[in-house]
Task: inverse folding
């Protein structure tokens, strides 16, 4: 086993342990960590199965196998960014709806507390 392969294996495993630790500490939800875990697993597999990267690259038609890793990383980042965009958009809509509800409740309270208002 080459030194760079050992570094790649250890780096991938430490990455996976880090993501799992974030899930365990409830700093990241499982649903959001799923893509991190999937792509972390892909990198662990490619780190261990050195010829696998060459095999997959030849299937896909990539002539320089390390370029396939960059492609996989770019796809991972794009998918994670799309996932975050969906979550942010959903939360933005929820915040807007809550702000509107608060404004309506505040108006209702103000109308009930106006002088001359009979209750």
Result:
């Amino acid at each position: 086993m080459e030194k760079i392969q050992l570094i790649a294996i250890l780096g991938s495993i430490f990455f996976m342990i880090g993501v799992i630790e974030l899930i365990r500490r409830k700093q990241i939800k499982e649903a959001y960590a799923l893509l991190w875990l999937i792509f972390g697993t892909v990198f662990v597999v490619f780190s261990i199965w050195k010829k696998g990267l060459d095999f997959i690259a030849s299937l896909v038609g990539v002539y320089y196998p390390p370029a396939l890793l960059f492609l996989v990383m770019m796809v991972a980042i794009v998918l994670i960014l799309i996932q975050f965009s969906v979550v942010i958009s959903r939360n933005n809509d929820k915040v807007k709806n809550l702000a509107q509800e608060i404004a309506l409740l505040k108006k209702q309270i103000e109308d009930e507390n106006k002088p001359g208002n009979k209750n």
In short: The chain has a mean pLDDT of 89. The two ends are 83 Å apart (CA to CA). Residues 110 and 116 are 12 Å apart (CA to CA). The longest helix spans residues 65-112.
